[in-house]
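Tokens for chain A. Residues wanted.
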């Protein structure tokens, strides 16, 4: 007999939610995947069968309760089934970043003591085999794509589909065992272990319970009225907590469909084909899309440029108000409708966001200009604030209360408070159980009453209850003259310019601020082509004097904006250098979620920072880099250092 919808709140595990969907919406699409250019689809009843056969296959391999099963690969339905199948037999799934290098991979697999690894293809299998000697617990490797796997020793190497078939063949033998293990799952049991990005050190294994994931999925789905008719594109790393909540937690709670793109290169086209109603992307994604839009407009005819500029100016004035249901004059509505026909509608379609009903961005602060751009063209983009330790959600923006300068109000069931030092604390049903094998860090992060220190500085608006994040608490400081130093705020302003891919601002305890700049090779390369500037490499283009002048103009604009802010006027940039290489996760300068490792950069490029502050006009540097095959090398360059004149605050003497 099918369970009633009200009974879902009593479910203790994700497998119970899958069984509910298989009974109540058996023919609704659960997962889709594009392979060889063709979309394949599995209904909830079919997905449940795939999960069952794999769970039985796990039992034939001897998977025991409490075993850790690592999963390495891109977003594929089979891997989501693998995580649910692991939970079904009492094991703990540990998704790992697919682009992790050997050192990162061996740390995670050894730290969690993974006995089983599911790898997508030959490349991932080879990575695991390369480090196998350092993995004492590893017993079996299961691969999904069998291309290139013919001559491998199969003693402890298994084909995913063969394992499922073996499970089906052993159904009579293990059905009772599987049913018994599923029935024994408690809400307090571990649902998944996810590793933090490790911005300040080794990644920590965050243990999230079934209660954490299910209650968070229930509350967040209700907040945005998500239902079985929604669909989402799963393209972000499976090792990231957001993907787990969206593609497993919320998907299993609501019954909506999860679609997986064919690969990274086809993601944008696949997005257009699927037309998701629910979409999440980090700020960097939206920055990149906007950069591509601006590049295309620079190459467009004068008439198209005029129309785009004219209607976008109008959209910036009233687009957000229309989206929030605020009053707008008839004339403005009519003008917007014309823009909708010729500019906004086609643009949303090009971006693949025509059907988005709920869109979110998080992970890092997004530039207000970028955020407002998307809302102005009718995309219901909102901000949320979260952490792995919170099962994602700490705050969300309700419809009608969306602003670029806040991250919203406390998510359902979440309590917020600000410490005397200005640090944000929260507690909620989604609060993590503990850090794996790390009681010291657990105690430092979560107190006896369940309050979790976020590490972010912020404040709650008294009138609205909205939370405003200033910066990472450890990064916020004071200039030598006492002015507030908030580097991320300045960096986000600079990254609004399409030519700026990344920047790192320095200045805590110093007389003035300086910056490292990474140019966006796409945007600046397009500009160089239009201006007949020849270059043969990123390094050569980054060092071109005209590129320096262009970046200087962007910094001047940013400084003008900062000069009007009494609190942050001291953060104006006085000197900058354009780096000779892009900051890279493989070189340890960024996390796998593309967050800047500020301390690593300060240590690695200390010679450049010293030159920015000692008055040098140029600096010679040598930098170690990691090539695609994992080998190390070095690049050297003599970098120019440019000065920028700060803007005097209005009403103040120079």
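Reply:
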């Amino acid at each position: 007999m099918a369970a009633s919808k009200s009974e879902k709140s009593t479910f203790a595990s994700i497998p119970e939610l899958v069984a509910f969907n298989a009974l109540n919406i058996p023919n609704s699409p659960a997962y889709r995947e594009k392979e060889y250019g063709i979309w394949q689809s599995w209904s909830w009843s079919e997905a449940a069968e795939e999960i069952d056969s794999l769970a039985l296959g796990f039992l034939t391999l001897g998977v025991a309760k409490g075993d850790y099963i690592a999963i390495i690969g891109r977003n594929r339905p089979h891997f989501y089934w693998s995580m649910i199948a692991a939970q079904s037999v009492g094991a703990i799934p540990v998704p790992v970043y697919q682009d992790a290098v050997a050192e990162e991979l061996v740390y995670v697999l050894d730290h969690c003591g993974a006995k089983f690894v599911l790898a997508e293809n030959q490349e991932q299998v080879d990575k695991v085999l390369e480090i196998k000697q350092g993995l004492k617990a590893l017993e079996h490797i299961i691969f999904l794509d069998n291309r290139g796997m013919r001559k491998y020793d199969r003693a402890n190497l298994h084909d995913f589909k063969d394992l499922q078939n073996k499970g089906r063949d052993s159904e009579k033998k293990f059905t009772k065992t599987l049913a018994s293990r599923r029935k024994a799952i408690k809400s307090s049991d571990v649902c998944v272990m996810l590793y933090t990005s490790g911005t300040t050190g080794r990644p920590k294994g965050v243990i999230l319970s079934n209660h954490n994931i299910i209650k968070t999925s229930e509350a967040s789905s209700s907040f945005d009225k998500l239902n079985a008719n929604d669909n989402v594109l799963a393209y972000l790393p499976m090792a990231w907590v957001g993907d787990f909540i969206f593609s497993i937690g919320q998907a299993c709670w609501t019954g909506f469909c999860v679609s997986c793109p064919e690969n990274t290169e086809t993601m944008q086209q696949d997005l257009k084909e699927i037309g998701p109603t629910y979409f999440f992307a980090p700020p960097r994604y939206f920055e990149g899309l906007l950069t591509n839009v601006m590049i295309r407009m620079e190459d467009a005819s004068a008439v198209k440029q005029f129309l785009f500029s004219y209607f976008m100016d109008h959209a910036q004035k009233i687009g957000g108000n229309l989206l929030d249901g605020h009053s707008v004059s008839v004339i403005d509505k009519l003008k917007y409708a014309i823009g909708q026909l010729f500019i906004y509608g086609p643009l949303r379609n090009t971006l693949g966001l025509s059907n988005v009903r709920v869109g979110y961005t998080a992970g890092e602060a997004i530039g207000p200009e970028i955020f407002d751009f998307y809302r102005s063209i009718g995309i219901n983009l909102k901000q949320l604030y979260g952490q792995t330790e919170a099962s994602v959600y700490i705050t969300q923006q309700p419809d009608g209360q969306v602003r670029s300068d806040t991250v919203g109000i406390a998510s359902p069931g979440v309590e917020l408070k600000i410490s005397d030092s200005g640090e944000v604390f929260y507690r909620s049903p989604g609060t993590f159980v503990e850090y794996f094998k790390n009681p010291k860090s657990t105690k430092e992060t979560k107190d006896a009453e369940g309050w979790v220190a976020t590490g972010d500085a912020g404040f709650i608006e008294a009138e609205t209850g909205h939370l405003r994040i200033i910066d990472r608490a450890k990064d916020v400081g004071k200039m030598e003259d006492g002015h507030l130093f908030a580097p991320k705020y300045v960096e986000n302003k600079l990254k609004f310019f399409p030519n700026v891919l990344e920047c790192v601002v320095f200045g805590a305890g110093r007389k003035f601020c300086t910056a490292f700049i990474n140019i966006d090779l796409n945007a600046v390369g397009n500009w160089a082509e239009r201006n007949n500037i020849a270059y043969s490499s990123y390094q050569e283009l980054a060092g071109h004097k005209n590129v320096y002048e262009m970046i200087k103009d962007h910094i001047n604009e940013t400084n003008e904006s900062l000069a009007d802010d009494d609190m942050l006027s001291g953060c104006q940039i006085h000197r900058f250098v354009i780096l000779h290489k892009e900051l890279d996760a493989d070189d340890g300068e960024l996390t796998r979620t593309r967050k800047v490792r500020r301390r690593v950069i300060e240590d690695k490029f200390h010679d450049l920072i010293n030159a920015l502050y000692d008055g040098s006009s140029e600096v010679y540097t040598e930098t170690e880099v990691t090539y695609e095959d994992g080998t190390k090398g070095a690049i050297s360059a003599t970098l120019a250092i440019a000065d920028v004149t700060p803007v005097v605050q209005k009403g103040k003497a120079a």
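The domain at 283-429+437-470 is CATH 2.30.38.10 (Luciferase; domain 3). The first strand starts at residue 29 and ends at 35.
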